[in-house]
Amino acid sequence: MKPTTQQVASQDKPAKSANLLYNPTFRSVVFQVLAVVALGLFFYTIVNNALTNLSSRGIATGFDFLSQEAGFGIGLTLIEYDETFSYGRTFYVGLLNTALVSVLGILLATVLGFVMGIARLSSNWLVSRFAAVYIEIFRNIPLLLQIFFWYFAVLQALPSPRQSMSLGEAIFLNVRGLYFPAPVFEQGSGVVIAVFVIGVIATACIAYWAKNKQKLTGQQTPVGRIGAALIIGLPLVAYFITGMPISAEYPVLKGFNFRGGISIIPELAALTLALSIYTASFIAEIVRSGINAVSHGQTEAAMSLGLPRNRTLKLVVIPQAMRIIIPPLTSQYLNLTKNSSLAMAIGYPDLVSVFAGTTLNQVGQAIEIIAMTMGVYLALSLITSALMNLYNKKVALVER
């Protein structure tokens, strides 16, 4: 007797259920959901217990403290700030100071790292040995000790403001920092700035056009000279035509320190130097390995066409090496940004020192302050990674 349709369907249901349990995709989704739920419960329990303990001790929670008056000064501020501003303002001041030293450090470390990486492969014995000594010394000394060296042994040994080292009565260097003239923008200066911006945009457009032209025809355009004329020459012409509306405010010694102009405090200089030199030693090795990974046949082919060594390196080797250099280079940028938190050791007012240090000591709300500080470093790292990934995608080898 043949089974009915109903009986066959009832027999298939357990089989389908069993097959679903053994389905790798289904099981992976279930396990991931369970892991997320467990992790959420774990953090909820920790936060709930912490808030309960703080409440039982009479310690306030929440972010209301951000609107309270800070009552302390900060040595370096990129935005308006004094003791009457709120703790929320100290957060932004520390954030901008952290971003400042990170950007400066990344730029200087990149330039120095590429120079030393290329010098490490130089056929000149002296240049190659100098680069090798630099790399082996600075990458094997702890960063904190290098920060102390630049701050205490170098910058703190400079003369007092009255005995400042000067250059042309315009630039002064002393134990308080570096002082140089500040631009003063008067009426009509907007025209000069607008011409400069137009020159930069025009140069970028010409560079893009010249690159496409070279791909199609092989002809090169002197983008450097054209860019110099547009970015430097054109604004200078506008500057003189508009009656020189941009002047300079020179630093002047008044009492025990200089007033006016732009000043770079020694804490910023020491931290930037240490971060740049330390990170550049790792970038140099990344650049060297990236260049060595490019087949030597590429160099021989370029030289057989009559290209000089510098153009071979610029047009043939480096573009191919960048595909190998960028991923580890991104990691060094992230390390530099996070290592900037060591600024607290010499009193540079970064986010950790100002917000996670002084502000935390005054208000005592550790959970909120530490969470905000961690969020900032996470955001800075994710932004850096996103930008580098975009660039890496642009230079990646596209197979046909």
From TrEMBL:
Family: Belongs to the binding-protein-dependent transport system permease family. HisMQ subfamily.
UniProt domain ABC transmembrane type-1: residue ranges: 95-388
UniProt xrefs under SUPFAM superfamilies: MetI-like
UniProt keyword Acetylation, yes or no: no
Subcellular localization: Cell inner membrane; Cell membrane
The name this protein goes by in its record: ABC transmembrane type-1 domain-containing protein
UniProt-listed Pfam families: BPD_transp_1
Transmembrane residue ranges: 29-47, 59-79, 91-119, 131-153, 188-210, 222-241, 261-284, 342-363, 369-391
Origin species: Vibrio hippocampi
